[in-house]
Amino acid sequence: MSWTKKILLVLLVLLVAIQFVPVDRSNPTEVGELWAPGEVESFLRQACYNCHSHETQWPWYSRVAPVSWLISHHVNHGREYLNLSTWNTLEPDQQRQLAQEMVEEMERGAMPPALYRLAHSGSRPTDEDIAQVEQWAAGFQK
């Protein structure tokens, strides 16, 4: 057997073996969901909820390592930073700050991330989406 075939065989065995590494794909219970006007909530559900809530819709490829590791990491990190499923448990100052940060991240094109936008058409915020979220966020001002 040639070295190339041996290397390919080892890689195939490793690819199969890593499928057995457990990955957390849980969706905990809602605790204090966000309230927003219809069009804002609709946009946030489409563009943000998969990584920033307990309502993640895990696609088929989230079950295939090593992609599953990346997706699980992104969702867990996203929930740690901003979890729309626990929004109403936050203090008003925290809500105001996070709402403003949402707008800033969308305006600079950082959210949703490019890789997410590639896999989820319609998640890229339009100028109208940003304006609506900005108007909603302005309601949290002191």
**What is the typical, i.e. mean, pLDDT?**
90
Radius of gyration: 19 Å
Poorly predicted regions are none
Specify the helix fraction band: 40-55%
How many helical stretches? 6
- Report the order of strands and helices: HHHHHH
The share of residues in extended strands comes to under 5%
Total number of beta strands:
0
Q: N- to C-terminal separation?
A: 72 Å
Overall geometric form: elongated
Largest sheet, if any?
Answer: none
Estimate nothing, just give the exact number of structural domains.
1
Structural class: mainly alpha
Keywords, please?
single chain; 142 residues; mainly alpha
Layout of secondary structure:
Layout: H1 3-17, H2 38-47, H3 67-81, H4 92-107, H5 114-119, H6 127-138
Explain what you see.
This protein has 142 residues and is an all-alpha fold. It has one domain (23-138). The protein is built from 6 helices and no strands. α4 packs antiparallel against α6 (127-138). The chain is elongated. The N and C termini lie far apart (72 Å). The mean pLDDT is 90.
